């Protein structure tokens, strides 16, 4: 017998599946969170587009993201430059092979709902920390605009595109205080995959300089950009 909670979650998700049903924005946020509460892990390939408002420059990147609850992350950028980000409950490692340097940060830097990694992994508290505005469909995906109730420099506005059939976020665009954009598009997405624990560990290669910022509240550079 299904529990009441499971039934409520199923009903909430059905709001995405039936486009003829008129729903409130918060109901849609609840539907997304209900789906991600059931998700234990995922693996995804991504394309990232970074836009700089002042200069007009656009940079495109490709890579792979591994996620496992509660918040274990391996973010591997393959091109145009290699970069590795590993997030655990104790620390964050940011390794830049070309610069032969690895930065170590406290995990608190990515635990805020306004962090892009919280948004694209479905861990942001959408129905608590954001005002949510539905914007119909785009490319077959449900489009929602998010306004943080307490804006921060790294996020003043965001847009997410959600797969109606599953409730999974397939694309997100984060706008910072300066008008710069950080868009992530998942070109593949595999939920509830088995991921080795070793994927969420990092040891700096021999000869690599380690910059320890574990006591810092400000990263050397913006993470996941």
Bin the strand percentage: 35-45%
Name the helicity range: 10-25%
Overall radius of gyration: 18 Å
What structural class is derived from the secondary structure elements?
Answer: alpha+beta
Mean pLDDT: 89
Major sheet strand order? 7-8-9-10-11-1-2-3-4-5-6-12
- Terminal Cα separation, in Å? 45 Å
Record field, number of beta strands: 12
Uncertain residue ranges: 1-12, 17-22
Q: What profile does the largest beta sheet have?
A: 12 strands, mixed
Number of helices: 4
What is the succession of H and E elements? HHEEEEEEHHEEEEEE
Which term fits the overall shape? globular
Task: Give a description of the structure.
- The chain has a 12-stranded mixed beta sheet with strand order 7-8-9-10-11-1-2-3-4-5-6-12.
- Helix content is 16%, strand content 40%.
- With 225 residues, the protein is an alpha+beta fold.
- Strand 9 and strand 10 (169-175) form a beta hairpin.
- It is built from 4 helices and 12 strands.
- It starts with a helix and ends in a 13-residue tail after the last strand.
